[in-house]
Amino acid sequence: MASKAHYKKDKFELMDWILIIILTLGMLCILIPFFNVIAISFTSYKEYMQSTWVIWPKEPTLAAYQELFKDNRILVGYKTTLCYLLVGLPLNLLLCSTLAYALCRKGWMGRHLIFMLILFTMIFNGGIVPLYLVMKSFNLTNTIWSIIFAQGMNTFNMILIYNYFCSLPEALMESANLDGADEWTILFRIVLPLSKPILATVVLFVAVQLWNEYFMSMIFLRSNDWQSLQQVLRSIVMDSQVVDTASTMVDVGEKNFTDAIKMAAVMATMIPVMCVYPFLQKYFTKGIMIGAIKA
């Protein structure tokens, strides 16, 4: 018996080592290209010509970032995307929370039918053309309100919040109702303070979605004064490709220098999200797990 238990223990430890090796290789496949992007953004043209696979630049330089931020389009992109976050994030959270709370309260007639109709829109939707026609009928095209309203409600996030609200004790809401609290008081003073994990999860989802907003902005916005950060990044990359093509006939050095500008533009869009995520990580796992248990 002892030898059999010892055999199982050795087999388990062997699997642990195999999993560690596989996960380590996967981690390196992710981190090495990531560090290469960072390193190239700080690399000079001379060092880049010696090797395009740079992990730690020998002579770091900020020339790419200085060249990048000389372009006023980056500031326009930050301004537009921050407007999306400051207005669109609270609106999305408010709509999802209030709708989820209304659907989770028992005894309301038709709530299951309404839930199924909302779920139907998650699977089937009218598409971008009807949405564009609706925005045009309200004269919202070429304004940031078209993006904010188009992203104002997310069915998946609402379902996450709905499942979390359903996991809360119903007696807690009923006792507050007996004490004279109305539905708004129960929602904002009892339910939402108890729902910080799922709210933090949804905040992270919506924030990343709005930060990476590109397609809707390309469809609805035509003014250069309201380009999103991802649109600006696309424009810079495309301009760099044009410079690369032209520089093959004029100056090879300029061609390679644009690679550093591209990497600097990528880092300029990634760093804000990377700075926010650690503060929400402790809520993220708990919120997504609890919100997915009960449907």
Query: Uncertain runs with pLDDT below 50, 5 residues or more?
Result: 252-256, 291-295
Q: What name is given to the CATH topology of the largest domain?
A: MetI-like fold
* Class derived from helix and strand content: mainly alpha
Superfamily at the CATH H level of the largest domain?
Answer: MetI-like
End-to-end separation in angstroms reads: 45 Å
Residue share in helix: over 70%
The shape is globular
The number of domains is 2
Radius of gyration: 25 Å
Strand content: under 5%
Largest sheet, described in full? none
Summarize the structure in words.
- This protein has 295 residues and is mainly α.
- The chain has 2 domains: 61 residues, no CATH class; 233 residues, MetI-like fold, CATH 1.10.3720.
- It has 14 helices and no strands.
- The longest helix has 40 residues.
- The C terminus is likely disordered.
Key features of this structure:
295 residues; mainly alpha; MetI-like fold; 2 domains; 14 helices
Helix and strand topology:
Blueprint: H1 2-41, H2 45-50, H3 63-69, H4 72-104, H5 111-123, H6 128-137, H7 144-150, H8 155-167, H9 170-178, H10 183-191, H11 196-211, H12 215-220, H13 229-247, H14 252-290
The gist of it:
It is built from 14 helices and no strands.
